[in-house]
Amino acid sequence: MLSCNRAPGLVRPEDILTYDFDGNPTTPTDKRSYLERFIRSEIYRARPDVMSVVHSHSQSVIPFGVTGQRLRPTFHMSGFLGSGLALFEIREAGGNTDMLIRDSGLGKALAAALASHHCPVH
């Protein structure tokens, strides 16, 4: 489940869409889908143990994706980072792109980079 392409503060219950593992809506809709829905579909396909995917552009995390520095847990609420993070370099999977996971090929590459880790940083 994922909302249609809408600002988070404007999402209504009827804006929530369901998708299959190919990133396609399961019911016909005229609502625009998020391009990066393939992050979710391919992680769910590759990792049946994953129950939810949070996609964030947190300004405090982005530097770890571009510097290669390891993001480490520093307090109890971040203990899930103890297993380490996966670093996904989109250029290795798709060349020079717009940095969006906009198709299943890039989604599969991200899911493969995730491996057994809890979080990918790209």
Number of distinct beta strands: 4
What is the H-and-E element order?
EEHHEHHE
Spatial arrangement of strands, main beta sheet = 1-2
Rounded mean pLDDT is 88
DSSP strand (E) fraction? 5-15%
The biggest sheet, with number of strands, parallel, antiparallel or mixed sense and barrel status, is: 2 strands, antiparallel
Radius of gyration: 15 Å
Number of helices: 4
Described by the principal axes of the CA atoms, the overall outline is globular
How far apart are the termini? Answer: 22 Å
Poorly predicted runs of 5 or more residues:
none
Structural class: alpha+beta
Number of domains: 2
How would you classify the quaternary structure? single chain
What portion of residues is helical? 25-40%
Task: Write a short abstract of this structure.
By secondary structure, the chain is α+β, with helices and mostly antiparallel strands. It is 26% helix and 8% strand.
Question: Any overview of this molecule?
Answer:
This protein is an alpha+beta fold and 122 residues long. It folds into two domains: 1-34, no CATH class; 38-121, no CATH class. It is 26% helix and 8% strand. It has four helices and four strands, in the order ββααβααβ. It has helices at 37-46, 62-67, 90-94, 104-114, and strands at residues 2-3, 16-17, 85-87, 119-121. It has a two-stranded antiparallel sheet with strand order 1-2. Helix 1 (37-46) packs across helix 4 (104-114). The longest helix has 11 residues, at 104-114. The relative contact order is 0.17. The mean pLDDT is 88.
